[in-house]
Write the structure tokens for this entry.
Amino acid sequence: MLLKNHPRTIPYHHTTMTYTTMSVIKKRSGLTSSAINSNNLATEANQREKVVAQSSKAIGEITRTHPTVYLIFVSLLLDLLAFTMILPLLPSMLEFYKKNDVGGLYGYLSESIRSFQELVGAPQRFNSVLFGGALGSMYSLLQFIVSPIAGGLSDIYGRKPVMIVCAVGIAASYGLWAYSHNFLLFVLARFVGGVSKGNISICMAVITDVSNHQNRGKAMALVGIAFSLGFIVGPMIGAIFSRFADKTTSHWFWLPAVFAMGLALLDVVFIVTCVKESLPREKRSKKIINTLSHAIDHISIPALFKFSAVQNLSKRDISSLRSLGLVYFVYLFIYSGLEFTVTFLMYHKFNYTSIDQAKMFLTTGVIMALLQGSVVRRLPQRLTQISAVCGLYLIIPAFIVVGIAETSQMLYLGMILFAISTAFVVTCMTTLTSKYGDFHQKGTVLGVFRSLGALARALGPIVASIAFWSIGSRITYIVGGILLLCPTLMMQRLKLS
């Protein structure tokens, strides 16, 4: 009796009834053990799918190119179309000033160099090469000085206002070009254009503002595509104007200059109406003196090569940056000089018309655009340095072939090699540089890097033009091609952190 009524003892029939009842409940509710497991698995699978979808969405957001980058692409393209229109026209324009500005600045400069010209035996017909090189170097030197200052001002007042001011100045320079009936006015037009050319630097700053480490390479490749398209279409437009122009008149270049001014004004309107400010007020610099002093660091040559404006980086990172900057400067110094004199080579050695030159620019531009849009833009980070090295190796035979070319076929071969190399080198080196520094330092790092490039482009054209003028194109291009082996080997031996 006592055992039967013990509270911890459960009769067998009670246990059986309990299990039976539970089974009935499960059957009635349809919840068998397999169904429960299936429901649990389905729930887990749905949760996993949601996590994967959210992760994919997050990765997509990180790697997707910001819409502002495409607006900058359009603005750059408009600017470059106007800028490159003059390339096939420049040799003819300088010949025009040679004949019609005898008593002006062109005649004065020709007389000033006559004794040295006779000493080295330089043909008088190459004076236009020398003066063209001086103009090209002046333009790039002004850009070298102005770009960091414009960038510093944009850190204080915002990107958009400074971009608008630069675009208006560029439009004004084309207006001066339209009325440059003498060489002095043309030099003044180029001076105004160089002073206003801070827009490229600010465009890069905008891209830095809206990009991250994962999508910056794609954004830089889009900039490369804009340059390639500019060098495809711009020279073609200039050549078409040149072909139908009556060059016996004193203002035969008026129409292309006005067209370039129209493109520049369209760029102004586009920036005002479409481009949004990428630097919020709360992120702008409050200390004007400090900001402008950093801008001066971009102009000081020793500070540039030391990357003095970049603070709080490890010794290894600073060492890598300095090595990259030196390679970039040496490469662009030689490259830009030979690149600038190509139009004069075509004009004087091959008797190319503006249309012939435009066809050459079309060929090289299409190749560069296709490569940058399909290959360079998709390069993984691990292949960036080796791609830059391969591009550097390719530029050596490119310029040697251009130098020894006696036929158009050989010239085209050299320029095609040149286009393939150009598509890779600058974009890859810029991408390599952009990985250094914290988020707030990217703009400074890339600013110093671009300033080194601008300095190289300021010195390269005048040195190459003097060589072309005094010793001829063949030796200039062969020696230049061989010298390009130096930055190539330097880049190959770099061990970047």
Observations:
- Residues 1-22, 24-31, 55-61 have pLDDT under 50 and may be disordered.
